[in-house]
Amino acid sequence: MKIGFIGLGIMGKPMAANLIKGGHELRAYSLSGVPDETVKAGAIAEANGAAVAAASDVVILMVPDTPHVEAALFDDGGVAAGLKKGSLVIDMSSISPIATKEFAARINALGCDYLDAPVSGGEVGAQQATLTIMVGGPQAAFDRARPLFELMGKNITLVGGNGDGQTCKVANQIIVGLTIEAVGEALLFASKAGADPEKVRGALMGGFASSRILELHGKRMIDRNFDPGFRIELHQKDLGLALAGARQLGMSLPNTATTQELMNAMAARGGSQKDHSALVQALELMADHQIGQPKK
Q1: What residues are labeled active site?
Q2: 10 Å Cβ neighbour count for 212?
Q3: Are 137 and 210 in contact, with CB atoms under 8 Å apart?
Q4: Percentage helix, strand, coil, to 5, in the chain?
């Protein structure tokens, strides 16, 4: 299949690499430039999104936020300018479900299909091709894209129509954010009470409180490893989508709002580029206590 890929950052670069490994021809464009290693792996760098789309049957986007998707699709030299009838556009970014429905309608009007297919699993999942992929769009387009999804992920679900994939991702980010906050509170409580947080974490891993976030992010908190797998600023954006959606639906998400404020506090202290597990540092400031020490 002739594939176009827009956005080759922390997530996009390994995802594109896995598509190349799967034997597909790949055209690529990124605002920061196509990485040398992506070109060496076999990608052909193009001058803009329109050129990528003109040479591709399927165009995948993996960019940070709603305005970036809109610009990649519809700005001068954007993907829409190069699409052929029958092409498929797949947005794997995490963006507004409402804007997604509008983007899908505009792409459909050009005679092309559109899928929103945000992912969960972070940089490790992208590298290991174990991402969870939540898809919104027509069944026929999903069936066409599934062989590509299977090169990038393991848990692949057609949730519903356009926008439903993004709604599912927002729900995912609510759970992840609140669980990070809960793990942070629990380990901080244990540590300040004088217990060994690593041993507490090990004990909890064998019980009902066990989770991947306790396993991986709890370890990050104890080892003080906040190199980004998924940056705080991106989780801020996702929880912002949740809170904006809640306002439109006339409902309250009280703990989502609290978790967002803790992330805002970290960003205000210069931590927006840290891994989202660094949210614990906002809790530590209020407790005047640090959970662990950097690993030597």
Answers
A1: 169
A2: 11
A3: no
A4: 55, 15, 30
Q: Residue 249, exposed/middle/buried by CB under 10 A (0-12, 13-18, 19+)?
A: exposed
Tokens representing 169 are 């991702």
Task: Report the relative pairing of strands 153-160 and 44-45 from DSSP bridges.
Answer: unpaired
Q: What is the tally of helices (H) and strands (E) in the chain? A: 14, 9
Q: Residue 75 carries which DSSP code?
A: S
Q: Give the β-pairing of 113-116 and 44-45.
A: unpaired
Predicted TM-score (pTM) of this structure: 0.90
* CB contact at 8 A, 118 and 166: yes
Residue owning tokens 């947080």: 197
Q: Which of 192, 216, 191 is nearest to 121 (CA)?
A: 216
Q: pLDDT tens digits for 61-106?
A: 999 999 999 999 999 999 999 999 999 999 999 999 999 999 999 9
88-91 and 113-116 strand pairing: parallel
Which positions of the chain have pLDDT values less than 50?
A: none
Residues 254, 276: Cα–Cα separation, whole Å: 19
Tokens standing for residue 67: 């305005």
Residue 200: how many CB atoms within 10 A of its CB?
A: 18
User: Please, how many CA atoms are within 13 Å of residue 75, restricted to the half-sphere of its CB?
Assistant: 9
